[in-house]
Amino acid sequence: MGDWTTSTDPLLLRIAATTVATPDLDASEADYARWLGYRTIERGTVDAALAESWGTPAAAGERTCVLVPAGEDDVFMRLVEAPAVPGYRPLTTFGWNAFEIIVDDVHTLAAQLAESGFRHLGGPRALQFMPSIVAMQVAGRAGECLYFTMESGDRATSILPPPSGFVGRTFIVVAAGEDFPTMLRWYVDRFALRERPVRQSRVEIIQQAQGLGPDETIELSAIGMRERGNLIELDGYPTGPNRIAAPRPRAPGHLPPGNAMVSIEIADLEPHAALALTPPSRRAGAPYNGRRAFTLRGPAGELIELIETE
């Protein structure tokens, strides 16, 4: 990527899994399978120890499934059943607000999703500063926001990872909060992530969701993990009089609705163990496969699960 402003060796390696909390697991699973081509590799229930590690004890016993995109076997989408939260709307609350997924042909996907359970939010549209990159946005049945992004130019030299199939893996996760500088420094300084310029950006889908004026901007930047095409985007949501952005409501003891959690690989958990909601523990099944993991809360309340690779 040509506009890095720092050069570091990031401690966060790559996105291993994203988790969506949905009130209707069966319908959400069917949507990901039928419309996105995702394949279910595990089904079961959340065990009590795992729920406790997330800080969500009420999630114990809830149904869950793990899916993989076409052509992938080690990047996962996890669905967990959770009660519906009245009044929750995508792109209006703090925490994880979107998962961005690489695709082969966003225009064909957009036409297909017009008949699906995914609600269109915006696009396809070329990015202002990188016009060869084209993106669209939808909301799923659980209120999860998904960005679908393609490289329409030379993929060999693109900053984007190549898609493994028609719809590939998540390569960017988006967190929003009210204090952008604090969020940026927390991630960069704690995990040595690579920085890019901070922009004052007009983001139409956020403006629409929050009732902002057409010329109102948000602070925005993307910070880099170690592996190519693995980024965290940080969005600063405006707050104050006549603003609706606020902490995310959730059913007591459950995961946040919609975009609930992100699991990220890291070489060594120990330097960050003081932040863990519960001590590191080895866990079976995807995305852990016997590795140690723990969960912490980020500066906007977002749940971050770290999975140790060594």
TrEMBL record:
This is VOC family protein. It comes from Allosphingosinicella ginsenosidimutans.
